[in-house]
Amino acid sequence: MASGKVNFNDFIKLRDKLQRLNDEAKRQEFLESCAKELAARLLAKVKKRTPVGDYSGASYTCESGHTHKGAKVPGKVGGTLRRRWAIEPIRKEGDKYIIEIINPVEYAPYVEYGHRTRGGKGWVEGHFMMTISENEIRDMAPSILEKKLRRQLGDLLK
Fold it and tell me: Which residues have CB under 8 Å from 26's CB, separation 6+?
């Protein structure tokens, strides 16, 4: 019959590290950081897609490919809509973490979804800067979260 010694110290250390995963505060911190990262990525995408008005009076094509004829307004500078995007503080409702991205500019929905022209005879297409960005983030989220989780587990097991 064979005999030998076994050192269980490494197994005990691994067990202790894995038990840290059950720490509610650490888990909540990790989930909040995931939500914040997704929100930050969404904000960056939506800002990039948000058109900036040109008030020189010339026609221009915005980033989304729409052609516009800007009114000539001396001294007026565009970019208000793009600058006003903001992330609201995170909140937890049940088992969900919610972060809202808002734009308080009154004409934001008209730029997003489109609107009738003055006089009601035509239609200005929407840019769908939030809708398109949200769909992209939704598609990217699983891989982003998987990388974040792998990094978290890797740090834990060092």
Answer: 20
d(CA 124, CA 129): 15
The C-alpha atoms of residue 69 and residue 56 are separated, in whole angstroms, by: 9
Instruction: Say if residue 57 is exposed, middle or buried (CB neighbours under 10 Å; 0-12, 13-18, 19+).
Output: exposed
Residue 131 makes CB contacts below 8 A (sequence gap 6+) with 112
Structure tokens at 93: 């409702």
The list of the chain residues with pLDDT below 50 reads none
Which token pair is 11?
């197994």
SS3 39: helix
The angle at the Cα of 101, spanning 77 to 70, to the nearest 5 degrees, equals 25
| CB 127 within 8 Å of CB 62 | yes
State pLDDT tens for residues 6-52.
677 777 777 777 777 677 888 888 899 999 999 999 999 999 999 88
- Dump strand ranges (E) for 12-119: 59-61, 67-69, 86-87, 91-93, 96-98, 101-102, 114-116
